[in-house]
Amino acid sequence: MTRAKYHTIIGTLFCIIATSFPLYAQIDLVGSWSARNSSDALSNMPGPEPLPVDFLGLPLNDSGLAGALIHSPSQLSMPDRVCAFYSPIYMLIGPFSLRITNETEPRNGGTVAWVIGGWEDMAPITIWMDGRPHPSKNAPHEMAGFTTGVWEDDVLIAYTTHMRAGIIRRNGAPSSDQTTMKTRFFRHGNQLTVTARIEDPIYLTEPYYLTRTFELSVRPPFPAVGQPCIQGDEGVREGEVPHFIPGENPFLNEVTKAYNIPAEAALGGAETMYPEYRKKLKDKYVIPDKCPRVCGGPGRFPRLF
Amino acid sequence: MGIPMTPASKQVADAWDPAKDEATGKQCKSYGAALIMTVPERLHITWQDDNTLKMETDTGMQTRLFHFGGTTPRESKPTWQGDSSAAWVSRQSSGNAARPKARYLRVTTTHMLPGYLRKNGGPYSENAVLTEYYDMFHEPDGETWMIVTTVVDDPVYLDYPLTLSAEFRKQPDASGWDPTPCSAKW
């Protein structure tokens, strides 16, 4: 999804018959699902984006914005973070495809769990379908969190808790360890649409929705299994935490310089998610004469991911 | 970035000129069916008749007509929103006939005027075929959401199909509805 994300429907007449099926899958999700990063290529793909201090469309509260503004990308080079995993949120904000398998109950072949394979920097996600409860609120949090799933209207709904603190956008907008994520897997033939509702009582003022799309592929995802991460010296000393002093982030105007978008919009907040916010910017924004940066072109968007 | 452009597409994109589009009455090129669902906007959806679902947008003031029942009237000339046929589709190819099947809406659109896949000029051609999937769900807090997945297949300007998505939250009333004409410049 693009910048001002949320749209609104008025007077909808759609009606879908609701059914609810317990435990065993009605729809098969096993396979390699190739990511289609067209909507969020600038945000998800490796490269110079998302720009620092581009929080447009994120419902950050004051704490979330403060945390985002002190973040330095060099934190990835801290020795104890070089090989760290991202949380399951990365399934929605990272570049990679999905490899989905299932663990079966040996007596009847039913699916006990769906497993989304890990990448080089995302832990595998196990979606338990056997009705087991989530751990105690006092149980330790893991990078992969803890996820259970149910089928509803032939849509797999996964619910993740117990994640560690991480990010909600690759430029350092934070997510707390109180974050929960409800993820829906909609299959349409060979297309898979994955929509997540992310709630974070610490850093967000309201739920944040993200959608990514995938296509069934005969090839394994790239990379099917990431290379082992080897910790090396990336220039940050042990114990040092790269950051910006509050009020001194040097990148406050990066989005303005790149796209003419007013700096106030780049600071995000719930209102930047909604369509009417665009009109608030109308008199402050002049569309660039041409694509100013990272413009793509023939062969520059390989199907690999 | 993110568009699997062909060399022909790059040539058209490089020639993008919003002032020229406005001067020639083509300011709606970024409001065509392929992109309209990802524009910041509100929708108003009603049944025009038993077989036609009407979708109006406030941004760009566009109207889409989704024709059910297998008969899609063909406009004499291509339009920004093209001709759309629609059907409710089960996620399961087979199953227990006695049990109601969950369904999504699939819309196929052709006969569109050439338009843009991005505000700043990445093109799609009049040969493009649009396939859309509409999924709805309800949250426990009472909110109703609609997720739209759009697949644009264009043999002229795309190496392979482009996929887009958007989220919509249902409103209880028309507050915020603000019809605004197309603009090539903002």
Structure characterization notes:
The complex is a heterodimer of chains A (about 300) and B (about 190). In chain A, about 10% of the residues lie in helices and about 25% in strands. Chain A has about 300 residues and is α+β, with helices and mostly antiparallel strands. In chain A, a hairpin with a 2-residue loop joins strand 7 (about 145-150) and strand 8 (about 155-160). Chain B has one domain (about 5-70, about 80-90, about 100-170). Chain B has 3 helices and 10 strands. Chain B has helices spanning about 5-15, 20-25, 35, and strands spanning about 40-50, 50-55, 65, 85-90, 105-110, 115, 125, 130-140, 145-155, 160-170. In chain B, the strands form 2 sheets. An 8-stranded mixed beta sheet of chain B has the order 1-2-3-4-5-8-9-10. A two-stranded antiparallel ribbon of chain B has the order 6-7. Chain B starts with 6 loop residues before the first helix and ends in a 15-residue tail after the last strand. At the A-B interface, strand 1, strand 11, strand 12, strand 13 and helix 6 of A face helix 1, strand 1, strand 5, strand 8 and strand 9 of B.
Short key terms for the protein model shown above:
heterodimer, A: about 300 residues, alpha+beta, Lipocalin, 9-stranded mixed barrel, two-stranded antiparallel sheet, 6 helices, about 25% strand, B: about 190 residues, mainly beta, 8-stranded mixed beta sheet, 10 strands, about 10% helix
Quick synopsis:
The complex is a heterodimer of chains A (305) and B (186). Chain A has 305 residues and is an alpha+beta fold.
